[in-house]
Amino acid sequence: MRSSPLPRMSRRGRVTIGVLIGVFVFFTLLGWGVNAWTDWLWFDEVRYTQVFTGVLATRLLLFLVIGTGMALVIAANLWLAYRLRPRLRPHSPEQATLERYRMLLTPRLGTWIAVVSVLIGLFAGLSGQSRWSQWLLFRNGGSFGVKDPEFGVDVGFYVFDLPFWRYLLGVGFTAVVLALLGALAVHYIFGGVRLQGVGDRMTNAARAHLSTLVAVFVLLKAVAYVLDRRAMLLEYNEGAKLYGAGYADVNALLPAKEILAYISVVVAIAIIVFSNAVMRNLVWPGIALALLGVSAVAIGGIYPWAVQTFEVKPSARDKEAPYIERSIKATRAAFGIGDTKTTGYAANNLVPPASLATDTSVVQNVRLLDPQLVSETYTQLQQVRGFYDFGSKLDIDRYTVAEKTSDYVVGVREINYGELPNNNWINRHTVYTHGYGLVGAPANQVVCGGQPYFVSGFLGDKAQESCSSQTEQIPAQQPRIYYGERMEDDDYAIVGQTGDRSVEFDRPTSTGGEQYYTYTGAGGVKIGSFPRRLLYAIKEQESNFLLSEAVNDNSKLLYVRNPRDRVEKVAPFLTLDGDPYPAVVNGRVLWIIDGYTTAATYPYAERVNLQAETADELTGRGTFQLARENVNYIRNSVKATVDAYDGTVKLYAFDDVDPVLKAWNKAFGGDLVLPKGDIPPELAEHFRYPVDLFKVQRNLLTKFHVTNPGDFYSGQDFWQVPNVPDAPDSGQKQPPYYLFTQFPGQAEPRFQLTAAVTPNRRQNLAALISGSYVDGQPRLEVLELPDQTRISGPTQVHQQMTNNGDIRQQLNLLSSNQAQVQYGNLLSLPFADGMLYVEPVYVKSSNQDAYPLLQKVLLSYGDGGSYVVLANNLSDGIKQLVEQGKRAPSGTPPPSSGEPKPPTGGATTPPVLTGELAQAADRVQSAIAEVKAAQASGDFERYGRALKTLDEAMSAFQQAQAAANPSSGPSPSGSPSAAPPTSPSPSATPNG
Q: C-alpha distances in angstroms, 657 versus 118, 561, 648, 694, 947?
């Protein structure tokens, strides 16, 4: 029975569908064209058109090449399958059923093949154009000058070449699989492949065609095995818990991949030969494919598993040691921590020294203002109008004022568009176009009951005259802020002269009036002509571009006004730091943004997720959250600036030897990034160690400061980043903080980013990590404390200070239903072989317009609990600490209440302890430190064990004392006549 043809669509239906498709295509092309045209105008404004044309041309090229290549492969195989169809087909119900489809396809077979091929090519092209960055690195990449430890291949191959080769291999697999499926379908429809009937189920032509495609697939698999051998250096090693090939990989899986590559070639040849020349069936090719699968499981799976299970696991520490060493070296090189300078710090002084009162390098520079807490204070005191805002977090920079360099808390007065008095289109986009002024205050000074001492950025606010200087000590010749962090995508501004008067609100005057302004900068796209107005009316979907009188022949449009977005658009290959900051450079306010070049294919290097590694208490609260990007190589290669007035973007090469930056610069003509020598000295003075890079390096140093493979495998010396001291249960990490200070081993005070780390699963202090610039070069330093140090970590110190009886009482008086106590940055400052902790205490009233005021300062010296004060200011606190130190008997710190007291005997000058007596005293002190740690941790079981150990240590001390001095009996108080020293002797203290 002959099948009836498919019903035809009516003419009206075809017209309707055609119109709908035409409308969809028109608006799609219109939207793409508008975005492309406005992007071109924006790039032309900032003078980076080579980025626009370079990225666009590369995307179009990849789209056409990948899409066309995929379409041709599919079309050729579909057409070939049709041409190889049998002329005569045996009669069967199966063939009768397929006849209907043959009648549908045959009259327009070329059209059907073209449609299918174009659709597949379209999706392949869209996938290909997204690989523009891989192609540009592949095309322009060079050498790293470093070879991998297994194959001796330059690291540049892994970073620049391997990702694109693997992508092309994936495209090849996709093309062959789709071609095989398509050809199989055509052969089946036209009778080349049958499921029913007598005789062969497949014609010779169909068998040759399909077997050739299978053979090509197997050959691609051989290529994949070859690339997999190199990619093994990038994969996670379960045995060593690190990245890179381990013992089983190198000694079992690596040769297995090579064997499988040869087997794949043999199988591909066997498929072609046995299918078409010898056996002329699919039995032997099927057997060959099955053997390849069995070999892949046995050689590539079971054998490496057996080596890992029976040879590596019983002695993993020794077997994996060489490969752990490779990972340590590669990670330290890839993340720029290989040159970290580690210095031991005895930390054996637990008594506040008298030199604290006279110090000029550390104490005088202690930062009291917390940039997160005082942002509200800045807004309230420097707001001037209700629509100005400083954001949720300010920034730290350093300035030299009155020939003195110190760190300053700075912020820019920006427009908060959500607080405009009348938030209509005219006000939002033509009147309130900009903020005004950079506001700064020394970070170590407060006035008027806890307010910052503002030295710049005033707008005639009479309320502050009695508290702050009215002199512009950080003068900005152009203080207007047209580009800032608080500006969103839709916060565009239309500027330019309108008639004979200025309409842009500029700032209030000292007499209470308002001053207006007309923008005269070079930034912005001219929109005076009707085509430009129509263009942006479509883009912004706003008719006022055409109708409003505010848009005239002299108008310019400012958009993409967030500095970070602006740099990201100019340099899409950079990963940008989440904390841009403003600086006054040569009289202009510039935004400075750190740019990172990254890679994810550095052999043997640890792989981290940037979003997870950089997240802490401040993420999303004044700092941008980074994207989820897995990397194992990073460099702070670029320092970018954005002029806050005219939006000028400049990219300066900071790490000018970075091969990745060289590749990107070459890809865009060689002049995209300005050379390092072009950095103005006045700008370089404001460069600071980037926050997000430091977080990544700090987190890696918690493990990779250990360079011995055996010690690394055991993990006993690992560190951890402590949680926020005043909210340890939040799970948020303590953010690093900027300080202008001098650490031991440094010749003079530096502006440095600092973080404290503690031993893994313990709370005492392990080390201080700092990042700074020395002679323009980045430097990481680690100040490492002994393993058995009594110095408490940040969380412990905060608890000890705030739980002190007297201090707790004073804090309770500050806090009430009408006020809230807020804690600022807890600073860890090494001083005189001890540790000084400083934590500012703010009080915020519950009133609606209240802001935090610095009311007290918490200070601690030594082990965190022995010497603690809560003072009205830093100077008084230092004096009180010094007085406490002077009152201590023989410089021995008095134990805190509730803690076990070491035997003292009441002697003013205890004898020097030597020999077994000194060792016994060390045991007492170690036991006391463990009691304190257990008490702070809240672990009662641990606390009981610690008390028992202390009791045993004190008994041993008394026995040792009796043996050393048989004539002396117990003192009247029952304590031994000599007390152990307050810290272990250097010879008895192991270095970490």
A: 44, 31, 26, 20, 57
Residue 532 has pLDDT above 90, yes or no: yes
Residue 127 is assigned to a structural domain of this protein:
yes
What are the start-end ranges of the H helices in 723-778? none
Q: What percent of the chain has pLDDT over 70?
A: 86
Q: Does 636 share its domain with 753?
A: no
Which pLDDT value is given to residue 944? 66
Q: Pick from 661, 693, 725: which residue ends a domain?
A: 693
pLDDT digits (tens, 9 = 90+) for 56-66: 999 999 999 99
Q: Would you say residue 630 lies in a domain? A: yes
Structure tokens at 572: 């899409």
Contact 367, 443 (CB under 8 A): yes
What total number of domains does the chain contain? 5
Contact indicator for 936, 799 with CB cutoff of 8 Å:
yes
Nearest to residue 778, comparing CAs of 572, 564, 565, 596? 596
- Domain extent for 773: 717-891
The answer to whether residues 882 and 941 belong to one domain is no
Q: pLDDT tens-digit profile of 484-508?
A: 999 988 889 999 866 667 889 988 8
Residues near 230 by Cβ (< 8 Å), separated by ≥ 6? 151, 153, 157, 158, 162
State the Cα–Cα distance between residues 719 and 961, nearest whole angstrom: 37
Average the pLDDT over 432-455 and give the result.
89
pLDDT digits (tens, 9 = 90+) for 325-371: 999 999 999 999 999 999 999 999 999 999 999 998 899 999 999 99
- The verdict on 814 and 922 lying in the same domain is no
Mean pLDDT, the chain, as a whole number? 86
Joined together, the tokens standing for residue 812 give 């309770």
Q: Is 496 helix (H, G, I), strand (E, B) or coil?
A: coil
Of 653, 633, 783, which Cα lies nearest the Cα of 719?
A: 783
459 is a domain residue: no
User: Do 875 and 945 belong together in one domain?
Assistant: no
Q: 646 and 611: one domain?
A: yes
What pTM does this model have? 0.85
C-beta of residue 439 within 8 angstroms of C-beta of residue 457? yes
pLDDT recorded at residue 654: 96
pLDDT digits (tens, 9 = 90+) for 505-527: 988 877 778 889 999 999 999 99
Section 433-459 average pLDDT? 85
Tell me the mean pLDDT in the region 266-285: 72
- With contact defined as beta carbons under 8 Å apart, do 556 and 42 qualify? no
- Please state, as a whole number, how many other Cβ atoms lie within 10 Å of the Cβ of residue 110: 11
H-run or E-run covering 740: strand 737-741
Q: What's the one-letter identity of residue 699?
A: N
Number of helices (H) and strands (E), helices first, in the chain?
Answer: 29, 34
Give Dmax over CA atoms of the chain in angstroms: 125
For residue 157 the two structure tokens come to 């191959």
Q: What is the dihedral of CA 904, 905, 911, 913, to 10 degrees?
A: -50
How far is residue 84's CA from residue 544's CA, in Å, rounded to a whole number?
Answer: 64
Q: Could you tell me if 879 and 849 lie in one domain? A: yes
pLDDT at 844 over 50: yes
Q: Is residue 495 in a domain? A: no
535, 38 Cβ separation under 8 angstroms: yes
Are 184 and 59 members of one domain? yes
Asked if 128 contacts 55 with a C-beta cutoff of 8 angstroms, the reply is no
Residues 742 and 879 in one domain: yes
Least reliable range by pLDDT among 312-326, 355-369, 822-836, 933-947: 933-947
Domain-terminating residue out of 875, 891, 907:
891
